[in-house]
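[09:14] KT: can someone run the structure on this one? pasting the chain below
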Amino acid sequence: MAGTASFLPSSSNGRRTLKFQRADSLLVLAMAGPLGLWALVRLGVLPDPSLVLPVSHFVIGTVVSCLAVLLAGVLVLAASQLTDGRVLFIGLAFLCLSGMFLVHALTTPGILVQAVTPWVTLSSQLSLTSAAVLLGLSVGPGQSRLHRWLVRRRGWAIGGVIGGLSLYGIAALASALSIGQAPAEMATLHDHTAMPMYASGSVESPDALPLRNLNTLAGMLVQSPLGPVIGLVTLGLLLTASVRYVRRYGQQRGVLLWCMAAATCWLTGAQLALQFSPVWHLSWWSYHLMLLAALAAAVIGVNRAYEQQGSLGAVVAGMLVHGAVERLERAYTEVIAALCATVEAKDPYTQGHSARVAWLAARIAAELGLPPQEISRLYQAGLLHDIGKIGIPDAVLQKPGRLTPEEFALIREHPVRGAAILQHVRSLVPLLPAVRWHHERLDGSGYPDGLGGEDIPLDARIMAVADVFDALTSARPYRAAMSLEEAFAVLLSEAGTKLDPDCVAALRRVVAHYGWPLAVELPSVVALHA
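[09:31] RB: done, structure tokens below
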């Protein structure tokens, strides 16, 4: 077992597990901490003092808007490179958040606007509601009719949103500035029941009637009975998005997904604090701070991911919440396809073997109820499970007769060679167990390390069943292909002794459902990126 230290369970795996546990704990703390403190304040356990700080409100609102527009710009730029409507929905969500919240900041009473106007309240709610609706659309299927329609008209969509935000901002600021009033009664800023259209003693220009009508309309919207309903719908949409991102992070950990999970949770908390906190009090300020934290986390996550991947498209693709099938399609990288093609070129008798094993392994994993990220990992591992054959002479691989003991020993080295190749590619390290140990057997008779029983990782046990089945049902230079009955007879005779019986049973269900050979032949690994 020399040379296996890099792949057997080790302290490095323990350190990585500990790192994930710490990240998970920090995510839970990041989600529960601010909401827990807010709840304690609202329940009276902690004090909820009044903090009337219009300058601080203006500064925080402006910073939040700048972060949101920065993030929106990156995502909208990515949307021009990717034909995925979800990217554009996420970009437009942060664009609406930035525009509406900027109006919220600019209409802070006592800074640019001297009056207490309904625009500051209306803009704060619209910022979160518009973002919630668009984020909700972004977590749906990426190839829906709506997404395809949006991709075809993304230029008009972006222009329309920017134009609408500009008109809204001009109307809000113009009508708010038309009222001259000392910043009295600031405590009514978000109190929907006490919100004045403008207080007595306000000073209006003679031509301010149309603008006054806009103020009246905004006040009616703020005090509408639908306001609480809209707030609850917004809360539900943001909660749905946060749950989907938390699940996505649990399936495929990473800095960006951690940041997006935290950001969507903080947006949910911000809506909760906005809806159920008295204005200018500490609990109300937590809404602004959670919003600021959400935008900062998203910007930091995108920046870190870009530093690691160097591709804006790859970064944004990692943000998307999508199903297992789409994750499998994205897992098909050109590098993997090229490596598989290299193996098949050396061993023409096994052409298509890697693609079939990958398909079978993924289906077996799905049949066993494994999560999407493990299905994706097994699909990739299936494509690369024989990559170690690159280092084996063609004369041995293509020999029509039986191999000599020396030649067979050389063939048995391919799992070790394959793992040695993949260990230098960080993104492929999770594939190592399936690649190195797919020839191990439960009774310890396999190779290269003689592992047995539960010491063989589940990925490798699944890969072993898929590999053996395809080998038995494929023609070889020294024998004809077995029938399905003959192949399953061999598998059943080895189930429980050499092969995992649960994996064999799952394979039988897969073949019973899809048939074998497949009615539609799987594409070669070369054609997958053609």
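[09:33] KT: thanks! The beta strands are 179-180, 203-204.
[09:34] RB: yep, looked fine to me
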